[in-house]
Amino acid sequence: MNTQLSRREVLARTGFGCGSIALGSLLNPGDASAANVGFSPQHPLRPRLGHFHGVKNVIWIVMNGGSSQVDTWDYKPELQKRNGETLEGADPRTGFFKTSGKLLASPFQFAQYGESGTWASEIFPHTCQHVDDMAFVHSCYSRSNNHSPALFEMNTGMSRMGFPCVGSWLTYGLGSENDNLPGFVVMTDAQGRGLPKNHAQNWGSGFLPGVFQGTRVKERGSPVDNLLPVASMTPARQRKMLDVANRLNRRHQQQFPDQPELEARIEALELAFRMQVAAPGILSVKGETAQTQAMYGMGHPQAKFFGRQCLIARKLVESGVRFVQIYSGGTGNSQSWDGHSDIDRNHRQFAAEIDQGVGALLTDLKQRGMLRDTLIVCGGEFGRTSDSQGDGAGRDHNPNAFTWWFAGGGIKGGTHFGETDEFGYKSVKNRRHLHDLHATILHLCGLNHEALTYRFNGRDFRLTDVEGEVIRDILV
Question: By the number of CB atoms within 10 A of the CB, which of 87, 112, 322, 436 ranks highest?
Fold first, then answer.
């Protein structure tokens, strides 16, 4: 029997195969990738299973401006001993401005806490009580020494605009467990000192459908624009108006079916309607007991603002919101953790604002049995230099060394991963880029960072680009 094929037959069979592949791509568009089994453009926030079991929610506390590792969680005795000496190997390209090249000892006292004996700064008296539930990654590094690109890199993995942030990727992968609330909520500086640099692009969805972008809860006035309907608008009348808008949108969609933005807009209108019923109670602390409010610092002149946000974050994840991001610090340098001129004054102030709320959040989640299903992340866009700046009391930006900590489900408490040099200037052991931190966050949520993809402009994109390694040493 002759099994040889003619050239015409080979071309014909190959053509049929390519046609089948193309047809499969049309029937299964790239935005519904294999990583998102159950994803539906009609119901983009419907809850979905991950690749494996993980936590249900994430709360990310952002130290906006870049907190100093050597003044918080990365204790360096040698730095304390050699204050004022020349820092050998000091690189003027490390920071954004010119530094002195002279070592600057931390102005804060350090002590050991917990069974793990974790060294912690005096500025975190509440948070340090939880070190045995926390895992510290001391060898973080990024590639940007300026706030705007560094914030993009911290949030999206890329140092330029246009890419989806962590919260958008997570809600794209897993959806939300509450039909009446956004899957991704952002709270900006509690004192009203402005938005972080890049503004809303920090929580943007990039090329993902718009429904996955973060919804900002404002610190003053109505927490969300148009959250409450006008007095003359009854729910029945509003429902009729929305139905008319939806019918017109659906008619347009039939003519132009390849517009995912329209589907996201329809879903957003429906979500906004449902939020007017569900959100006001959740975004208020009035229903909480006096004891709970006191624990979060409601009676403290500095701690009450951020403490309220931490309490609302607990209520949001308790209600099924997938991802909550809280920014400590606003736009200007002195209005954030960006301690260029006086690290003592700057960090004492911002630590006093967040410490009680963070400690209460960890306590509250643990008491309610929620910590095992919630991941807490705390970190900023970069660290700070070990040598001084300006008049000798401040520190410049340092992308070569900073610390993030994790707590909650899947985390091995009381652990420390990676090391910086003896002065905390550079990460020298087990260096981990932000891609690795992002991969770890997704893994803890039950998502394989290499499989969570979205096809855009002919390429499969992912949060970690072509890099990223899960930091397994901090996992249970």
Answer: 322
